């Protein structure tokens, strides 16, 4: 039998000044969700069932940017997206523009399992969710007071906020945001010509290989704070934000446009397959050579039970565990 392994993430690119209590909160959530996956794998669950269950846990907790706590569009609404892929036969499902489905990753799986398609979006995805009897809630369920405040600041600064959970509350929050934006702009960090105030998207994802050697991956996000309505990132795109096959399973996080251009998740598998590199070397190669000027990170597992991660920005919320008892939750290098 193969050795099982699991890796999870809560976003790449973390402000080095993130308060200690925020770091600890994130690590507690990661540890709890990682344990959910470990318990399922020990009980013999399939990789596909595990990635769905773990990402559902991450979507339900407002700590990260998926499900409840998702980033807001310019219109002040939530438009979520998710994807899931089964390494057996490379089956996949994805959704975008979801605004009432409590757990978008489960809708992505229903698209894979119960529809003739691989990808549904907006009204079509919402209608299919109701046909399938998935739990739906009002859009307000996903919106937090903190996100409403940060959207206001993002609009005032004309910025797309990545790490919108960094507390800027104080005597002059607008000045603090403006200072952060100015600092990053001076370093040339921009996205599609727009200033990026603070970099850390906090997308969530999970990659698993089970005891039978089968792999699966899933990714879910609310996208960017202050994004244009209708914007679609890498998370629901198979081969970009999510990929699974016999060689590995991968979930990506970071600057979506850069991940899309590099087809980052698929490239890890391709480098393993065509260059014969082991998992960590493949991850390192893709992060270094494929992102050009983009910023991103990823987690991965191999079909033989290895775990790996890589990022080219400051920190990545992550955790991993293997059958031999190794378990780790971290943020920095």
TrEMBL record:
Residues that coordinate or bind substrate? 231-234, 253-256
The molecular function GO annotations come to: asparaginase activity; beta-aspartyl-peptidase activity
Q: Which GO terms describe its biological process?
A: proteolysis
Q: Which InterPro entries match?
A: Ntn_hydrolases_N, Peptidase_T2
Q: Which residues form the active site?
A: 203 (nucleophile)
Catalysed transformations (reactions)? Cleavage of a beta-linked Asp residue from the N-terminus of a polypeptide
Q: Which domain of life is it from?
A: Eukaryota
Task: Cite the Pfam families for this sequence.
Answer: Asparaginase_2
Instruction: State its Enzyme Commission number(s).
Output: 3.4.19.5
Q: Where is this site: Cleavage?
A: 202-203
UniProt keyword terms in alphabetical order = Autocatalytic cleavage, Hydrolase, Protease
| Record's subunit section | Heterotetramer of two alpha and two beta chains arranged as a dimer of alpha/beta heterodimers.
Protein's UniProt name: beta-aspartyl-peptidase
Which organism is the protein's source? Aegilops tauschii subsp. strangulata
């Amino acid at each position: 039998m193969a050795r099982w392994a699991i890796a999870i993430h809560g976003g790449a690119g973390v402000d080095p000044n993130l308060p200690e209590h925020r770091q600890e909160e994130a690590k507690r959530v990661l540890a709890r969700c990682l344990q959910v996956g470990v318990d399922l794998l020990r009980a013999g669950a399939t990789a596909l069932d595990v990635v769905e269950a773990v990402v559902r846990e991450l979507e339900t907790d407002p700590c990260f940017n998926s499900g409840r706590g998702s980033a807001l569009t310019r219109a002040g609404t939530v438009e979520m997206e998710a994807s899931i892929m089964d390494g057996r036969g490379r089956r996949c499902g994805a959704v975008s523009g979801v605004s009432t489905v409590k757990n978008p990753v489960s809708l992505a799986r229903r698209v894979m399992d119960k529809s003739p398609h691989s990808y549904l979006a907006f009204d079509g995805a919402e209608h299919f969710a109701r046909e399938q009897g998935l739990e739906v809630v009002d859009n307000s369920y996903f919106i937090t007071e903190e996100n409403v405040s940060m959207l206001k600041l993002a609009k005032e600064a004309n910025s797309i906020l990545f790490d919108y959970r960094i507390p800027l509350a104080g005597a002059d929050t607008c000045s603090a945001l403006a200072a952060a934006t100015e600092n990053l702009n001076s370093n040339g960090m921009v996205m599609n010509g727009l200033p990026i105030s603070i970099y850390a998207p906090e997308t969530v994802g999970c990659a698993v290989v089970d005891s039978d050697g089968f792999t699966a991956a899933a990714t879910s996000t609310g996208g960017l704070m202050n994004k244009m309505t209708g914007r679609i990132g890498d998370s629901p795109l198979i081969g970009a934000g999510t990929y699974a096959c016999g060689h590995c399973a991968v979930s990506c996080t970071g600057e979506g446009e850069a991940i899309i251009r590099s087809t980052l998740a698929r490239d890890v598998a391709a480098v393993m397959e065509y260059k014969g590199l082991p998992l960590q070397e493949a991850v390192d190669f893709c992060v270094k050579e494929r992102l050009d000027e983009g910023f991103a990170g990823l987690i991965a597992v191999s079909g033989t039970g290895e775990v790996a991660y890589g990022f080219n920005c400051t920190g990545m919320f992550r955790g991993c565990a293997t059958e031999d008892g190794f378990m780790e939750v971290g943020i920095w290098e």
